[in-house]
Structure formats: structure tokens, C-alpha cells
Amino acid sequence: MTEAVLRVAGISKRFGGLQALSDVGITILKGQVYGLIGPNGAGKTTFFNVITGLYEPDSGTFELAGKAYVPSAVHEVAKAGIARTFQNIRLFPDMTALENVMVGRHIRTSSGLMGAIFRTRKFVEEERAIAKRSQELLDYVGIGKYADYKARTLSYGDQRRLEIARALATDPQLIALDEPAAGMNSTEKVQLRELIDRIRKDNRTILLIEHDVKLVMGLCDRVTVLDYGKQIAEGTPADVQKNQKVIEAYLGTGGH
Fold this sequence. Notes:
The protein has 256 residues and is of the alpha/beta class.
């Protein structure tokens, strides 16, 4: 039986008088691309932010690779093994593409502050290895030739790829992509789909929040649909597309 990389159950979150999430749970198996979709205001981003440590849930349980964990802060979640990208790109604009990826890689280093100050042999060797791995990841996502370009000079699509490379640099057990196709043209979306498919074929596990339902249905192994903070469907893309509650949520024929 394929192991579960992430199990979350009973997740609820309230903001003042708004119940943003009500008893939501998902299980993502190793090697899956798992989609999270829903109309605007459905609670997708809130759920994503709870899983990745930006928001503290009011209730719920979390397991990562079979071990309980508490998503208390983004950097702690990254150390635990979940790397994320953001809907609004968050790169270091005046650092090079290579340097941006190296920042992600540093979470897995061990030299520490004193090694950096005194530039010990271990530190120098580790930095060399980080730079090498970071270049490999830039090549992997298709932007290796831009390693020495400042992040802000890259095209929008290439900045998205750079974010994914930086996330991969943390050696995550789960890579969580928040609206990666947002703002992309049709050509960039095709390239993104090919990249996500490549990552999956390398036996990585992906959680994908995306407005582009066609992209989700073409890529994902399983899909959860949220509406008004509640889980209204979960299953294969084919099953979800036929679900009457999902059809009503998207077409507005359910009394919304």
C-alpha cells in the first residue's frame, strides 16, 4: 500500500464571525498530484495557509510521513518537509536566480553561523555543494541559462519556475503550489504542466491549488472541492466533474 505523505483531519478556522473552514481533511499519497479547487471565497487559500504554517487552525490534526506535526511557523514547516510557493511571487528580486535557489537550499545545511563567519573548510565545501545543486535545479526547471540574472529581470513564467526550483531545493516531502498558473499565458501554462508532470514522474508529491480547473483535471490524481469552507467533494477528476454539488457550486445553481 502506498504510504501517505500528508494526512490532515478536522481542520476548522474562524476569522471573527466568518467560519472560513469547517472540518476539512485530506490524505495525499506519495507520488500523487493532489488538487484543491473551489469558487472564489471557498477557503482554499485559508486551508493552504493552515497546512503551511501561516495560519493557526482552531482545531484539527496533522501527520507528515506518518508523524504528527504542528504547522506552527512557515520555516518550521519547511524543515519538517513541506515547501510552498505563493500566489503572489515572493522572490528576492535583486538576488540572482542562483542565489534565490541557494537560499532555499540553506535550510538543509549544517555549518551554522560560526562556520559562515570564519569560513571554515566545512562551510566552504558546503557552499560549493549548495551552488552546484542549485544550478542543477535551475537546469531541471528549464532556466539554467539565467542563473546569473537578477530575479526581477526574468519573465513572469520564469519567475514562477524559479520559485518552484527554490521550493525543490529544500528537499521537500511535499511541494505545495499556490496558484502556479496565475497570470500565465497559454504557452506558459503548457510548459508549467510539463514541469509539474516531470516532478511527479520523479516520485515527488504535490499539492496544487489552482483556479484553472482544466489544468487541475488534466494533472491531478485526486481532487478535493471546497465551497464556503466546507468539503463538498473528493475523488478522481472524473468523479468530481460529475458531482452535482460541484456543478452547482461552480455554476451557481444551488441557491447561492
